[in-house]
Amino acid sequence: HEIGHVTARHGVRQQSAAQAADIGYTISSILFPELRTAPSQDAFNIFSGALLSGYGREHELESDRLGAEYLARAGYNPQAMLGVIKVLKDQEIFAAEEARKQGRENQGYHGLFASHPDNDTRLQEVVAEADKYVGAHNGKTNRTGYLNQINGMIFGDNEEQGILFDRNFYHLPMRFALTFPKGWQVNNQPTSLLAVAAGGNAFIKMGAMDIDRRLSPKQFIEQHLKVSRLKAGKELNSSGLKGYTGVFEDQGRPARITVVFLDKQAFVFFAGVKNSDEFKRFDKEFIETAASLHHLRADEVVLAKAKQIEVVTVGKQDSYASWAKLSHITNSPVMQLRLLNGQYPKGELILGQRAKRIQ
Hints:
This protein is α+β, with helices and mostly antiparallel strands.
C-alpha cells in the first residue's frame, strides 16, 4: 500500500494540487471580487485543507489497488489487503474512542471519509482487480511464518524510551521513575512525556535538560527557562532531590512550572489547564506528580523492562480478560489485545488457535 503511494507519485501530485489550490483562489478572487472577504477566504481554506489533508480517498484507493496487485504478483493472496486495512480501520476507531474519552482530537489514518472495509464496496472492487494476477497457487498467506517472525517482538515502548505501567513511568537507562495522576492518559513522546486529564481539561508535560551545576533549581527556571515572575514559589525536597516550583501566567491562564534535579539532568514539568477556573482543582496533582520523581529502585527495575509479543496456542483457561491482567498494558488492555489479534471490538479467543498476547 505504501509503495503504491510512491509508485503512483501521490506526493508529487499532492504538491501540485496544493499549488493549484493557491492559484485557484487567486484567480477566483480576481474574477469575483466578493470572494476577497475574510469569510470567503476562510471557507476556501477549509475546503482546500479537507481536500489536501492526507492523500485523499482516491489516492488511498489507488494505493490499495496497487498494493493488492503487488501482493498477487509476489505470490501472496491479494485479499489479505482487506484484512490489513480492516486492522487499520479498527485501530482508527479505537483511537477515536480513546481520544473521545480524553477530550482531544483524533487524526484518522486510512482514506478520506472512508467507511469500514466490511462495508466499502469500492475498496473491495479495487482489491478484487488483483485476482487476475493470482496463478495456480491461489496466493499464499503464510500466517504461521509471520507469527514465528514476530514472536518476541517488542510491543509498545522499549527500554530506551521508558516504560509506562499503569500510571507509573520507569526509565531504565536514565534510572528514574515517577507517578502520574490516576485516570490520566500518558503519552510517551520522543523527547518528553505528556499526560492529559480525563476530559482534556488539564495537562502535564515533562522533559529533561542538562544541569548547570552553578544554578539552583529556582535560578534554572529564571535563567534557562526565562520564567522570572513566579507566584507562590517554593522549594521541593522529595526523595532526596532538590527542586523548585511556582505559578506563572501563560497566555492569560495560570500554569505551574517545576524543576527537579536528578543526577545530571534537570527535569522540567510544565502543567496547565484549559480553563483558568479549574487550575486550583488540578494544582495539587501537578505538584504531586513532580514530587513523585525519584531514582529507580531495585524493585522497579523489572517494571522498566520492555513488553514483548508472545505467540501461544489458546488453551481452555485463556481469555482476553485473563491475558489483560498479566499484560501490563495501561490503556484498555482487552481492546488492545483484540486489536492485536484482529478481533476488535467483541471477538474472543478460539481454542487451539495461535494468538498473540503481551508478556
